[in-house]
């Protein structure tokens, strides 16, 4: 069983930065972590992922060069640093744990105004 709690969302202006956090609880943190996002009326899309223990990352083309995923295994926490935010980044951001059947957090809202 894994529980994920996201935080760090908010309302920012275009060009600003935000850092999202995803705190995981459970017996182990030895699994890949990912971030996804869902804009109103759209499907949930992949944003970024990081393997265990953190040597490999993947990004959606739309965020490459602007977003950075990382993890602190001592704190059982994954992060998503988002720079140069654009209005099209507005969405609810979800953390995912690639463990067992997969686990999701409750989501955190990111709104970028133009």
In short:
The chain is mostly beta strands. The chain has no helices and eleven strands. The termini are far apart.
Low-confidence stretches: none
Helix content: under 10%
Secondary structure class reads mainly beta
Total number of helices: 0
Describe the structure.
- There is one protein chain.
- The protein has 114 residues and is mostly beta strands.
- The protein is built from no helices and 11 strands.
- The strands form 2 sheets. Strands 2, 4, 5, 6, 9, 10 and 11 form a 7-stranded mixed beta sheet that branches.
- Strand 5 (44-50) and strand 6 form a beta hairpin.
- It is globular.
- The N and C termini lie far apart (40 Å).
Element layout with pairings:
Blueprint: E1 2-7, E2 10-13, E3 18-26, E4 32-38, E5 44-50, E6 57-59, E7 67-72, E8 77-82, E9 91-98, E10 103-104, E11 108-113
Parallel strand pairs: 2-11
Antiparallel strand pairs: 1-3, 3-8, 4-5, 4-9, 5-6, 7-8, 9-10, 9-11
Protein traits:
114 residues, mainly beta, four-stranded antiparallel sheet, globular
């Amino acid at each position: 069983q894994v529980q994920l709690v996201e935080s760090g969302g908010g309302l920012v202006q275009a060009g600003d930065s935000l850092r999202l956090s995803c705190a995981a609880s459970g017996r182990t943190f030895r699994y890949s972590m990912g971030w996804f996002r869902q804009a109103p009326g759209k499907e949930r899309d992949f944003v970024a992922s990081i393997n265990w223990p953190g040597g490999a990352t993947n990004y959606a083309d739309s965020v490459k060069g602007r977003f950075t995923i990382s993890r602190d295994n001592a704190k059982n926490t994954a992060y998503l640093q988002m720079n140069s935010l654009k209005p099209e980044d507005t969405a609810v951001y979800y953390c995912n744990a690639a463990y067992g059947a997969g686990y999701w957090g409750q989501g955190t809202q990111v709104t970028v105004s133009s």
